[in-house]
Every structure is written in C-alpha cells, then in structure tokens.
Write a structure and sequence with these properties.
1% strand; 2 strands; 334 residues; single chain; two-stranded antiparallel sheet
Amino acid sequence: MKMEAQKGENLGGMKRKRKLTIEGMKPYAICILCNIFFAGYNIISKVSLDNGMSSYVLVVYGHLVGTLTTALLAVLFERKNDTKISMVILRDIFFLGILGAVLGRTLYYEGLKDTSPAAASALSNLIPSMTFILAVLCRMEPLDISKYSAQAKVAGTVVALAGATLMTLYKGCVVISPHSARQPQHRTGTSKLQLNKDWIKGSLMLLVSYLSLSAFYVLQTVTVKKYPTPITLTSLTCLSGTLLSAIMAAVLDHKAPSWRLSWDMSLVAVLYSGIVVYGLTFYLQVLVARTKGAVFITASRPLGTVIATIMALLILGDVLFLGRYLFILFYNFY
C-alpha cells in the first residue's frame, strides 16, 4: 500500500512539474508565433502598398475587420464579463487608438512604402529598447545598474540605437541580389540621391511609428490590469483605432477610388491585418502582457527580423545590403 501511495505521489508530482513547464513555455511560444505573423504582415502590406493601396484606408479597414473579429470572440467567450468600463479605461482606450492606429500603423505603412519589409522588421529591433526606456520612466520596470541584467539591458539599448543609425544612413555593398543578373549595373547620381532621401525619410517614419507602438505596449499593459478581459479590450482598442483612423483618412484621403477593394492583394492585406494582426496577435499580446509585462512582449523582436529578411529575399526578391542587414543580424545574436 505504501509503495502504491508513493508511486501515486511521484506521478502526481511529475504531472504538476510538466504542467508548470508547459505553462512557463507558453509566453515564449506566443511571442515566437506573433513574430511569424508580423513577418507575414510586413510582406503582404508591402505588396499591397506597392500596388496602390492607400495607407490611410488600409489602417481603417484593417481595424474594422479586427473590431468585428474580436467582438464576435468576445460575445462567445466573455459575455459573462461584469467588469464595468470607467472613464479612466475609456481614456486609456482612446489613447491606445491614437498610439496604435493613427500614429503607429499609419506611419508604419508610410515608412514601408519607401523602405522594404526586411528593413522595417530590422528597425523594429528598437521596440524592445524603446519599451524598456518608457517602462523605466513610468516606473514599471526596475533599473538597478549594479546588477548584470540591468547592465545588459542598457548595453542592448545602446547597440540597438547604433544599429538603427547605421542602417538608416549607410547602405553598403550588395551581399545577395536574387535579380542581379536582370538589373542594370549603373544608376545615375540623381537616382541614387533620391533613393537615399526616400530611404532616410521612410526610416524616420518607421522610427516614430515604433516609438508610438512602444508607448502603446506600455499603456496596454497598464490598461489590461484595470480591465482584465483581453478579448473585449482588444475589440474596444480596434474600435477606437477604426473611428480615429477613419476621421484621419476622411480628411487626408477622401477620394472614392481609394476606398474601393478588389479581389487582389489589397483585400488579402485588409483581412490579414484585421484578423491575424489586429485581432489574434493583439489578443495574444494582451495575454502575455498580463503576466510578463510590456518589455517581455517586445524582447523577441529580433527573431522577426531574421524571418522577415528570409521571406523578403525569397518572395519579393529584395536585395540584401551589407550595412543595413548584417549589422542587424549581429544585433540579433548579441
């Protein structure tokens, strides 16, 4: 009897340890999945924008689809929610719409037009550093410079800023060019200058976009603690983004042809951004933010750079430049 009882206790202990291990691995698995989703989002958005899709309209339609998707899920899984929405929560949701949709996504699309998916993903390595700085300033993240972990975070922030500066101002030689055999080997000085100007302008837009998204992640972490219903919060955030971006789009791009969708990549971009990014990915990030915080969400961003660079090379035939990408790969492994 004692032997059987001891075996039962051992089995129970092993099951508990296995369960704890699985639970501990969930946030890491979610972050990896989110990076894969974001890499696909970079590629699809770039193709859609290059085909003439309005960046303002894409933000509106994407958030609208995200609102409808998450609202349906909220009705199915959180209809018993009795948490009241206070004015403080409404205020936070309003600012989440501004930071996420009006500034974050609109500037991201405008920057993506003048750069590339791999470059946009590489510059997103600044998001963990920006989020860390904002979290420290908001006293959400402790910083004891005498500890090795704090020193590593500060060093990573410096490396990230140096990498972003290098990638924005220096291109370097071509390392891999899938279409090198078909491309002319000469460019005029004017075309080179224009290319560099567009690249710098696009990179600066991306940097402002990522700063806004970093603030979005910090505010999202604060808000989900006040209103602990992740699906409903995601739906309300998408609704706020839809309304605010619709007002902006009506002012900046009110031409009727810009709002028409065809059965092409523009429709795919709207559905993918709405369902996969603004819906599913935002919800998964809220789940992780509730337990791990804003800095943890963004810490796996370098993995997305590798995925996006490979996808851009294979799918779009992007050129791999030494200065802009190899340094980022170094930063990933740093």
